[in-house]
Specification:
The protein has 750 residues and is mostly beta strands. The protein has three domains: 202 residues, Sandwich (Immunoglobulin-like); 219 residues, no CATH class; 175 residues, no CATH class. Helices cover 1% and strands 52% of the residues. It has two helices and 43 strands. The protein has a 24-stranded antiparallel barrel. Strands 1, 2, 5, 6, 7, 8, 11, 12 and 13 form a nine-stranded mixed sheet that branches. Strands 3-4-10-9 form a four-stranded antiparallel sheet, with no helix packed on it. A hairpin with a 5-residue loop joins strand 6 and strand 7. The longest helix is centred in the N-terminal third of the chain and has 5 residues.
Length: 750
């Protein structure tokens, strides 16, 4: 594929201004752009490629315009094209960015270069929106689970598709006292494997990041803040049946609740919830976890999402002081480790910006008693304050507290919930104890250069618990990253002392190591060959070494790999992985009688090789396949994973994920093989009616789970859900439990 200038142009540079004026007439959402205000609006154009090359203008150009009135922000896109068929996975709202042709705007409404919102559309008019944190510098900066009310219209022509967007000012947060917003535009042309943006962005960086954005200049003043209250009442109910007990237990439930969003200021939002219900939230995708550590599932509940970076980004990934899934969710060990909902009585959450430099967040939640799994009432309080400086840097302080009411004796506990039942080391034994309160403080500093080339992060945290010693109760870390065109390097270290207990956080090493010191680093080199087949390729080396605070060496993980990205969107990667573990706890990988345990103090080294291939994602049928084989502790492990996807455009898709594991250990330690098979049918009858049916067969847990979710979005941000869930024994396909629930929500702006 050859690339050249579509017409002579120079690169648009970061900081380029785009003026916006107030509309003099009415804007109609018809996709025609025939109003005089569109003709008079400034145009963002001259889009430049970011991928697969960053040295040429986009062969198919894009134009973006903006205007506004007292209540709405209006945007329009003109995306020039030809008759090549678009790639659209389905009509489902909140589409997958990488699986669809799409066009989007990225708004930094606080003008801090760090936080904002984005809105995207496909050529079929399918919407998605999300929130931006960390300046949009990496993939984790974009959260598409956030939901809000806005309107759009797309018209498809022979040589272009035109979109109009109408975003209520009530749907976003912004500041009255600023005259500029961060802004950029990104077009993803999957059918040609092209990414282009308004501001020319080096290929190693994300072109939607604010570091490579422009400025939206308000030539007419922003509308002043008005009363902005959104009420979201709901009615939910259902029937359930538990056949795993005798006699069978049947139950019915009907409840009402209310969520509310109150704009304290245009940039500071108060979220309130009373008796919330999250039964409509998409089910977690099961995983095979062959490690000694807890697996971290993502948060999908709307209440916890807006400005979530204020709370969630404290600490490092291996020691987070706060993890929102600790609230209202617990693992019931009496029923195949199923995640069960814990009733939440009420919650309040204040978050947002005070001004361009200061952000705050405060949350308080009260959960009810869950007697069936021995969980008492609990109060959760989280508070954070952040100070922004330079262009993309900040320091923050976070406080987290959990208080539990006592319920019964510890010996009667049948659940694992890190916020209550903890373990204390005494010699070689772990002793359970009941924690009434737990408090954690953390201080973080995140520094990033204006051009995203380097970043530095550090944190310090300490915990205070009525069941833990106040000595050795700290955690700290440092991380640095450097990225240029061909080279990226990173290095860091973290310390988790033995009594550090972030009960409402995520510390996977807790209970596995009596404290841990971790060193990590690595990097890669990227080639951009002049090729008609390969877009980029290169080697990568990463290493992670851990030891106990006493100096005992416990872990090594070293990986050397090579990756090739092809111009047709396919890719291949091969890795050689070396692992060393000196066990700090006794455990069994195969949970069967007569199988020996791996003993604390034993040391193992193993090496395996992995291969991954991702097919051309533009094809109606595409797939991903991976395999890994090699030694594993004192035996061998073979893993095969495949994901097959068929797209019936634009009405839905059929997907099948399958994973097979074959474990063979030394004599007495056992051997086993098991499958995890997950077919998924996703139907979009219209852009408002969706049906998802998801089946998960987990041979390791001897369970088959069926989840079917019907959604009718009868108006923006208002839904009717019907969800059916059932768990079966795989041998006889005998039902263990099942439930049918409905939920009706209505979004009302006052």
């Amino acid at each position: 594929m050859a690339f050249g200038l579509a017409y002579p142009q120079t690169k648009n540079r970061p900081g380029l201004s785009l003026p916006i004026k107030k509309a003099k007439g009415k804007i109609h959402m018809d996709g025609k752009l025939d109003e005089p205000d569109w003709a008079q609006a400034a145009v963002a154009t001259n889009f430049f490629l970011n991928y697969p090359v960053d040295t040429a203008a986009a062969p198919f150009q894009t134009e973006a315009r903006l205007t506004f009135d007292d209540h709405h922000l209006y945007l329009s896109f003109v995306c020039y094209d030809d008759d090549t068929p678009d790639i659209i996975q389905s009509l489902r709202r909140d589409f997958d960015f990488e699986g669809n042709d799409n066009m989007g705007v990225y708004l930094g409404t606080f003008n801090d270069g760090i936080n904002g919102f984005y809105f995207q559309l496909t050529p079929q008019g399918v919407q998605t929106e999300g929130i931006i944190s960390g300046g949009g510098a990496d993939d984790d900066s974009y959260n598409d689970t956030w939901d809000n009310k806005w309107y759009s219209k797309v018209v498809k022509g022979t040589d272009r598709w035109v979109a109009e967007l109408m975003i209520p000012f009530k749907s976003i947060r912004y500041k009255n006292d600023v005259k500029e917003w961060n802004i950029t535009f990104l077009r993803y042309d999957l059918k040609r494997n092209l990414t282009s943006s308004w501001i020319a962005t080096p290929i190693q960086f994300i072109p939607a990041s604010f570091a490579y954005g422009g400025k939206l200049v308000w030539e007419d003043p922003l509308p002043p803040s008005h009363t902005n209250i959104s009420l979201i009442p709901f009615v939910a109910g259902g029937l359930s049946e538990n056949r795993a007990v005798s006699p069978t237990v049947r139950a019915g439930d009907l409840q009402v609740g209310l969520d509310a969003k109150v704009a304290v200021t245009p940039s500071l939002n108060l979220d309130l919830t009373v008796n919330p219900d999250f039964s409509q939230v998409e089910v977690d995708r099961q995983v095979i976890n062959l490690t000694r550590f807890e697996f971290q599932f993502p948060e999908r509940r709307q209440f916890f999402l807006e400005n979530s970076d204020l709370f969630d980004n404290a600490g490092f990934p291996d020691a987070r002081p706060f993890f929102s899934r600790r609230i209202g969710l617990a693992t019931d060990t009496t029923e195949d480790q199923n995640i069960v909902q814990v009733p939440i009585a009420y919650g309040a959450r204040l978050s947002g910006s005070l001004n361009q430099k200061w952000r705050i967040g405060a949350m308080h939640m009260q959960t009810r008693e869950k007697e069936s799994i021995g969980l008492p009432q609990q109060n959760y309080t989280v508070a954070a304050v952040q100070r922004n400086f330079w262009k993309q840097s900040n320091v923050s302080v976070t406080f987290v507290e959990r208080h539990s009411h006592r319920l019964g004796r510890i010996e009667e506990r049948r659940y694992f919930n890190p916020s209550v039942l903890r373990f204390r080391y005494e010699g070689n034994d772990t002793i359970p104890f009941y924690s009434t309160y737990n408090r954690v403080i953390a201080a973080d500093a995140d520094l990033r250069s204006a051009d995203n080339k380097w970043s530095l992060s550090s944190y310090y945290s300490a915990s205070f618990d009525d069941g833990e010693s106040t000595r050795n109760n700290q955690s700290a870390g440092f991380f640095g990253n450097y990225t240029v065109r061909h080279v990226d390097l990173f290095a860091g270290s973290s310390l988790i002392q033995e009594n550090y207990n972030a009960a409402t956080g995520f510390v996977p090493s807790r209970g596995v190591y009596p404290g841990q010191v971790n060193y990590f680093g690595g990097g890669g080199y990227t080639f951009f060959p002049e090729s008609k087949v390969i877009a980029r390729m290169g080697p990568r080396l990463e290493a992670n070494v851990s030891q106990l605070p006493t100096g005992t060496h416990t872990d090594e993980a070293i990986s050397l790999g090579y990756n090739i990205d092809f111009l047709n969107t396919s890719s291949v990667e091969v890795n050689v992985n070396h692992t060393f573990q000196r066990l700090t706890n006794t455990f069994r990988l195969i949970d069967e009688e007569g199988v020996l345990s791996f003993q604390q103090g034993e040391a193992y080294r193993w090496t395996n090789v992995s291969l991954e291939y991702n097919s051309d994602q533009r094809k109606t049928f595409n797939y991903f396949a991976a395999t890994q084989y090699g030694s594993f502790y004192n035996g061998t492990s073979w893993n095969v994973f495949a994901s097959l996807n068929y797209r019936y455009q634009p009405y839905g898709s059929l997907a099948l994920q399958a994973e097979y594991n074959d474990l063979r250990f030394a004599e007495g330690y056992g051997q086993t093989n098991f499958w995890l098979i997950s077919p998924r049918l996703d139907l979009t009858f219209t852009d408002k009616l969706f049906l998802t049916t998801f089946l998960q067969y987990n041979e390791a847990q001897e369970n088959v789970n069926l989840n079917a979710r019907f959604q009718w979005r009868y108006q923006p941000a208002s839904d009717f859900f019907v969800v059916y869930t059932e768990n079966y024994l795989p041998e006889q396909f005998k039902s263990k439990n099942r439930s049918l629930v409905f939920k009706f929500t209505y979004w009302l702006n006052i």
